[in-house]
Amino acid sequence: MASTKGQTILCKGAVCWGPGEPLVIEEVEVDPPQFGEVRIQILFSSLCRSDVTFWQDKPKIGLFPRIFGHEASGIIESVGEGVTEFVEGDHVLPLFTGECMKCIHCKSTKSNLCEKYRISSARGVMLSDKKTRFRVNGKPVYHYSGSTFCQYTVLEQENVVKLDPSAPLDKVCLLSCGVAAGLSSVWKVANVQKGSTVAIFGLGTVGLAVAAGAKKVGAGKIIGVDINPKKFERALQFGVTDCVNPLETNRPVQEVVKDMISGGVDYSFECVGNAQVVESALLSCHDGWGMTIICGVAGEKTPFTAHPAVLLLGRTITGTIFGGLKPKSELPKFVEMYMNKEFALEDFITHELPLSEINDAFKLLIDGECLRCVIHL
Prior knowledge:
alpha/beta; Rossmann fold; Alcohol dehydrogenase; S-(hydroxymethyl)glutathione dehydrogenase [NAD(P)+] activity; NAD; oxidoreductase
């Protein structure tokens, strides 16, 4: 097979031409990687809720046409000048938020928000020259946190992590976002202890990963809160002990939680990305020590409200991107844990579809019919 290094590649990609419009499978021109960049052949890409949020353009960014997708796995096809960490053929995970290893955030044990390569869903272009590497019929197409709904993509080397080549790419793709974020939110951000009580608001992939992580450390009671009762049976399999549907009670859901756990839970996790849900999660916590962790990506810019006394009485609230994981230096440990069967990824994969049926995957997720749909590219 002839080498494609240094050449523009023509491949299939799912392009969104406008907010909420069906994705169109196009012939996409993918330029060679520039200095410090790598070009990746994407083999598998699962659909994440944040892809839907930005596809609908709820944050009103307005960057279209665009190629979405960020939770993926693949193989390095070629590297640009200045790349020393990767070679052709390396198995990798694209990262929606990067790690330069040099800035004040990367050197700190308290942050994973790299100053230069942190998540920026509004960027749409490469940092080196402020240009896109994608075109359709000569028209530029914007990037999105990896743009993995395309058979080839280009990323800065700081936004890629190398994998053990024995790791199954169709499974570990889930670790580049949702599952790792949920698990690490429990283990690293909250540091949930054995016997603790937990409430999870939103029982999608991140919420169920939180449940699995809480179960693994021996949490005593794990309450799952969701307005879709179809999710409850599956939630019990992931470790949730009790389920609550806010639509089936005439009281605020936080009061229901406090009846179930006298005074409230030790930890609550907001996995929806909704201001009202954040408030409910905070008010579900026990005074004196309760902690709320915001994991959900909010599309709307609605603020949440809380009286200062809620925090004055000892509750805390914090947010986290990617569960606080430093993506390049800490994510390989999660791959190792999966390979050692310390947690399962297969349980999160409910559907698998070819790239040509990606709009069906969006519908499944929006309708609440799936956790993760793995797209085969």
